[in-house]
Design a protein that fits this description.
This protein is of the alpha+beta class. The protein contains two helices and four strands, in the order βαββαβ. A four-stranded antiparallel β-sheet has the order 2-3-1-4, with no helix packed on it.
C-alpha cells in the first residue's frame, strides 16, 4: 500500500509536499519512505496502521492536491 500525490511536474509543488509530509512525520514520529514517479510522489510506511492514521490526521497548512491511498492489485497468473 502507498499514498500517492498526483500532479503535473513542478518543483514548487514537490517541495511543498515534501515539507508538509516531513512536518507531519516529525509531529507524530512516524518514519516514511518516498518514491518519485512520473506525475507524482509516493509515500510508504512500515506499518499498515499508519495509513489510516495518516488519513485521519493529514491537515496540511497550505492547499495541496488530493492524495490517494493505493493498494496495488495482486494478479494471479495461474
Amino acid at each position: 500500500m502507498y499514498i500517492e500525490f498526483r500532479y503535473s511536474p513542478s518543483n514548487i509543488l514537490t517541495n511543498a509536499i515534501n515539507q508538509e509530509m516531513h512536518a507531519w512525520s516529525d509531529r507524530y514520529a512516524i518514519p516514511y519512505f518516498t518514491k518519485t514517479v512520473k506525475y507524482g510522489k509516493r509515500f510508504t510506511f512500515d506499518d499498515d496502521a499508519h495509513y489510516s492514521f495518516f488519513a485521519m490526521t493529514w491537515n496540511p497548512s497550505i492547499p495541496l492536491p488530493d492524495y490517494y491511498l493505493v493498494e496495488p492489485m495482486k494478479i494471479d497468473r495461474k
